[in-house]
Design brief:
This protein has a single domain, classed as Maltoporin, Chain A (Beta Barrel), CATH 2.40.170. Helices cover 9% and strands 56% of the residues. The strands form seven sheets. The protein has a 25-stranded antiparallel beta sheet that branches. A hairpin with a 3-residue loop joins strand 15 and strand 16. The chain is globular and about 90 Å long.
């Protein structure tokens, strides 16, 4: 905690020596969007962090991972690849499967978190609503909602272009054009491309392992009539990259097999509003397609143990309808009622290839240890130098929900009450198989074919009720609220453990084929581990915010205190002897903490401070070997902090407009890496800066991140009994040219 105070008092005096224009965002009009988002904007009981286009671009926040800490208690570590979008907020979060925060782009929900990590470009605003939003948005929003709004062609018309270069041979270019016709139709088209050679070297081949290429495009069409309006977004994203620069502690990155990730995303979404005499009907219809493939050297060593290829083909269709009264009232009753339907079909192929070292150490060693207890001089041989455990999974999800939220305003008081009834049905089909040839030296002169297969179906069905109750009091310059709400994160199926399941079954079948039976059966009980339950939480919070002007100085402050009780908390664990990983449910945990956001603006100066504190501990969690009660929940930073100073020097010139100066820092820690709390990342801070020379129709930016080249770790895990880390990115810097006309 002492380090936080030192960092604050080092940065704060800089505001005494500078002046900055009030940050102007001329694009604050409400555009056509999902009405659940508009309903959130009416609520005084959801703390919000809001960022507009100028600040987003000035601070070079190009992806959601760049918003860590600038949103109090939000932590999105940058590790692995763009497939990895692990989000932690208020002590909630997991590494795989369902997220704790929902993401919406122009009112359309992103169905798979594998698609969360894409470059943000031409973003009019980004809002982060903290706390459970399940009453309006359903599952997987127990930590909050990202609401991203892109530039509207009905509001902004013109052409924007940028091109930049940075270290790591990083090249990025963007182009967009927005046009509005005479009949009130707006069309916006935008695209970007990005390349980097990377920053981490694999010592096995002396090549960068985190190289990346990315391409994206968006077509946005809007029409606004007297009693109806439409907004259609077509979004495309393509990624081809290396990644997974994992290494053993105090050693270099050193693995021999290919690690890579490829992804194609396509999102088509339509928002529409119809005004009737007394009511307004709103709807959102969307289709999403995800095609991705991951290749991974799963042992992360220069030995030929085993590799994983995981490929997904996913289709999602959603339909949302909501009804609300058209009449606008400052007092009395206001409400929204809606229904939501979605269907998802996911086909996944996940073959694990066992190579020579893996066969010898993971299969033959275990099998021969058992054999040689009875026949000390004999052993089993496997003909193949490599073989594949092939796994195919088909998951089908149907979700249906009905919800209602009411607001009752009486003078300065507002009561908010809502409930959502969520129905979820999941069907899971799996087929995992492998063929090998083996020989037992005592009885078999020739190799014999051993076929191993497991195939079956499972299903899950849940009905969840998600209530919310809040009361708020609002004065002209301040308001306070108290709220209680529930949320849940969906359950699912452990696909990444099937190689272990089949490997154990293969060894047992081999032994039984030889007539050897062990008193201790090491095989998995599939029914016990294949599924995990939904995670539920009850969130109680108290908030206060105030804003106003004093002597031409604008001040705003917002504080929140929260207490969260979590049930069946989902945790990712690695089996001690296995090669996969699985999601399991801990008993209970609780998270309590505080959040603070402050902004000061005086003439040409702006200072922002965001601080979050989280104390997340297990209340009840025993994995059968250890009791983790009162231990900190892993991967959750206890403190997050950002401080930023923006200063503008205006010029009284027709060509040279101004110089914008930005200095900001983000800090995190401590972060415990395991349930035992035996290993952690200590508190660390990252310094960034940007200088913009603004001229008529164009600007030049000089920027840098992690300017002090701070050494820190962004990820830790244990696999096959070995520890692995990923370092955070080193210093990055570059220059960007922007054109607007």
């Amino acid at each position: 905690m002492r380090k936080i105070y030192i960092l604050f008092f080092v940065l704060f005096p800089t505001i005494l020596f500078a002046t900055q224009n009030e940050l102007n965002d001329t694009l604050t009009e409400i555009t056509i969007t999902n009405q659940r988002v508009n309903t959130l904007q009416k609520s005084y009981s959801s703390p919000i962090s809001q960022f507009f286009i100028k600040r987003i671009e000035q601070e070079k926040r190009v992806a959601i991972k760049d918003f860590s800490a600038i949103v109090p208690n939000l932590y999105i570590p940058d590790y692995g690849s763009k497939m990895t979008s692990s989000i932690y907020i208020r002590g909630l979060g997991t590494r795989i499967d369902n997220p704790v925060v929902g993401m919406y782009i122009d009112g359309i929900g992103i169905a798979n978190k594998n698609g969360f990590d894409a470059d943000l470009y031409d973003i009019r605003s980004l809002e982060v609503y903290r706390g459970p939003q399940g009453t309006l948005f359903g599952k997987n929003t127990i930590g909050g909602v990202f609401n991203i709004t892109t530039l509207s062609p009905l509001v902004y018309q013109g052409t924007r272009f940028s091109i930049g270069y940075g270290n790591g041979n990083t090249i990025q270019t963007r182009l967009s054009h927005y046009h509005k016709t005479k009949n009130n139709v707006g069309i916006g088209a935008s695209a970007y491309f990005k390349h980097t050679d990377g920053f981490f070297t694999n010592s096995f081949n002396n090549k960068k392992c985190d190289w990346a290429n990315e391409l994206g495009a968006r077509l946005k069409t809007e029409w606004e009539g007297s009693s109806s309006n439409f907004s259609n977004s077509l979004i495309f994203n393509w990624v081809n990259q290396g990644g997974f620069p994992y290494h053993a502690p105090n050693k270099s990155i050193n693995y021999n097999d290919i690690c890579s990730y490829q992804r194609i995303n396509l999102l088509e979404g339509l928002n529409y509003n119809f005004d009737f005499e007394k009511y307004q009907l709103n709807g959102t219809t969307s289709y999403q397609f995800l095609l991705d493939k991951m290749n991974m050297d799963q042992d992360y060593q220069p030995l030929s143990y085993f590799t994983l290829m995981q490929a997904q083909n996913e289709h999602v269709v959603t339909q949302e309808l909501s009804l609300k009264p058209k009449k606008k009232t400052t007092e009395g009753w206001d409400w929204i009622t809606g229904l939501s339907l979605s269907y998802k079909h996911n086909t996944m192929n996940a073959p694990v290839t066992f190579k020579k070292d893996g066969i010898d150490s993971l299969i033959l060693k275990n099998a021969n240890n058992g054999i040689q207890q009875e026949f000390p001089t004999e052993e089993i041989h496997i003909l193949e130098n490599s073989f594949i455990i092939d796994s195919k999974f088909i998951t089908q999800n149907v979700d249906a929900a009905i919800y209602h939220t009411s607001f009752y305003r009486l003078k300065k008081w507002q009561i908010e009450a809502g409930i959502r009834l969520d129905f979820e049905y999941s069907k899971f089909s799996y087929n995992s198989n492998s063929d090998i040839h083996y020989r037992f030296t005592l009885t078999q002169p020739d190799f014999k074919l051993l076929e191993t297969n497991i195939a079956n179906r499972q299903h899950l069905m849940y009905i969840e009720a998600l209530p919310k109750l809040a009361i708020s009091y609002k004065e002209k310059h301040w308001n306070a609220y108290l709220s209680v709400s529930e949320g849940y994160k969906g359950g699912g199926f452990n696909t990444q453990l099937f190689s272990d399941i089949l490997q154990n079954k293969m060894m047992n079948n081999m032994m039984e084929d030889l007539g050897v039976y062990f008193s201790e059966n090491n095989s998995y009980e599939i029914a016990d581990i294949i599924t995990y339950k939904p995670e539920r939480c009850v969130n109680t919070e108290l908030g206060f915010s105030a804003k106003g002007n004093i002597n031409n100085t604008y001040l705003s402050i917002a504080t929140t205190l929260f207490w969260i009780e979590v049930f069946n908390q989902q945790l990712t664990i690695f089996p001690t002897k296995g090669t996969g990983r699985l999601m399991t449910n801990a008993g209970r945990s609780r998270s309590l903490g505080a959040e603070l956001s402050a902004n000061i603006r005086y003439k040409n100066l702006s200072f922002d401070l965001n601080y979050g504190y989280t104390n997340a501990k297990f209340v009840k969690y025993n994995n059968g070997k250890s009791d983790f009660a009162k231990k900190y929940v892993p991967y959750v930073p206890q403190h997050t902090l950002t401080a930023a100073v923006n200063y503008t020097i205006p010029f009284n010139h027709t060509f040279f407009k101004s110089i914008d100066l930005n200095l900001n820092t983000s800090a995190f820690g401590d972060i415990y890496w395991n349930e035992e709390n035996s290993y952690k990342q200590h508190f660390y801070a990252l310094l960034a800066a940007n200088i913009s020379l603004n001229m008529k129709n164009f600007s030049i930016d000089l920027w840098g991140k992690n300017l002090t080249n701070t050494k820190y770790n962004t990820f830790y895990f244990v696999s096959m009994g070995n520890s692995f880390l990923q370092k955070g990115k080193p210093i990055t810097f570059g220059i960007t040219l922007n054109l607007n006309f």
